[in-house]
Design a protein that fits this description.
By secondary structure, the protein is an alpha+beta fold. The chain folds into two domains: 13-75, no CATH class; 91-152. Helix content is 44%, strand content 17%. It contains six helices and five strands, in the order βαββββααααα. The chain has a five-stranded antiparallel β-sheet with strand order 1-5-4-3-2. The two termini are 33 Å apart.
């Protein structure tokens, strides 16, 4: 879940808690918020800003179907900027955000990655995260290529042999 507009609202629905977690993580990366879990049970999910003086809070609950989750309340009011780098902006997160750019230019340099992320999301990331994201995309591209070659050659995989 990539939040292009950088916003989540009350009554946003996710298929499961993992989707709600990703939405909250993307929102926090884009707005420089570091969260701490308050409640994480089967039916409720609450996180607050790590700064005790900040009023930012996100609260979600499971719906009647016991699978789908909805954001019940989102208390804005984050007024404290985070440190220079956001710890939630991991190399995996950067690689997923820059997926289209990596398709166009697989050897993107770190300065271009940093400028793109700053322009699109307002996130500053250190050099080592850029290099790890680039390496991760190359590994994913190689594994996808080997999977497609295996599928094209007609060699059965383990999952098709089990059937």
């Amino acid at each position: 879940m990539i939040l292009e507009h950088g916003s989540i609202d009350d009554d946003d629905v996710g298929e499961n808690l993992l989707i709600i977690n990703k939405m909250a993580k993307d929102y926090c990366v884009q707005h420089g918020i570091t969260l701490r879990k308050i409640k994480n049970t089967r039916s409720r999910y609450t996180q607050r800003c790590i700064n005790n003086d900040c009023s930012f809070k996100i609260h979600a609950t499971v719906l009647v179907d016991k699978c789908t989750w909805m954001i019940r309340s989102l208390t804005e009011g984050h007024k404290y900027s985070n440190t220079q780098f956001n710890k939630h902006a991991s190399s995996r997160c950067v690689a997923s955000k820059l997926l289209d750019e990596f398709k166009d230019n697989s050897n993107m340099d770190k300065e271009t990655m940093q400028k793109t992320l700053m322009r699109r999301f307002g996130v500053a990331i250190p050099d080592y995260i850029c290099w790890r994201a680039r390496k991760l995309r190359k590994i994913q591209r190689v594994s996808q290529a080997s999977t497609s070659i295996t599928a094209a050659s007609g060699v059965p995989t383990q999952s098709s042999q089990a059937i």
